[in-house]
């Protein structure tokens, strides 16, 4: 996977930088012919940042080594788990043309059976969706619309992540953390690495590590002990005005024998309407933004 969720979110954030909220009197429908021009990305936050504390190069090198080792241990642990289940809460920030930062809150579940089966759910204020992949076919269900779409997508979960992004313009929840080589995916464009010590997420003590890339900063909190799973993942789009963030909090983590058996065959609910695969946009619930958000033009 050459493109990570960080790249996808950065692109979305760059567009959302000019996102507008359409008038409620219009029933949440924006004028498709209207586009808000994106404001130039501000640099004031960079100018105002305090100078980084100077560390001896030896301590800096050790911090980077520690952080890389922690990330590699997490990656190896995840790759070794044939079955994983989790619940998540996520916050996706967008910035309006008036530079107001807004947050979109979502919760859901993921059930993964390597190498080629996954079942996800997502609930938000504007969607209630389900996605099932059985190694051959991917199925999208919009429960509010009681409609679904199915498409051929043979291959592994790694392949599915790429196809969801490139073909369907959709994201798999926590995609960066579900592939077969998490370390390689996350470290592909990293320029700086830091071990920040420990923190506590949901009552679980975690190792806290931070990374810098050209267009994003990102942090991850990894559970300490024999099951080093990701507890929190934060991506900051630092080249977008107001530096919007994506935050993924993971809870109810289970792996291996702790995960119950599941049938990955998709069965549509009674009365559900089947849409053509090319009409995915008609299944509005699967979008990352609600209908009353109007995307502006990027610069």
TrEMBL record:
InterPro entries: DUF2092, LolA/LolB/LppX
PROSITE patterns registered for this protein in UniProt: PROKAR_LIPOPROTEIN (PS51257)
Coiled coil segments of this chain: none
SUPFAM superfamilies on file: Prokaryotic lipoproteins and lipoprotein localization factors
Signal peptide: 1-18
Keywords: Signal
Low complexity: bias regions: 25-39
Pfam family, one: DUF2092
Region (Disordered): 25-64
Protein name: DUF2092 domain-containing protein
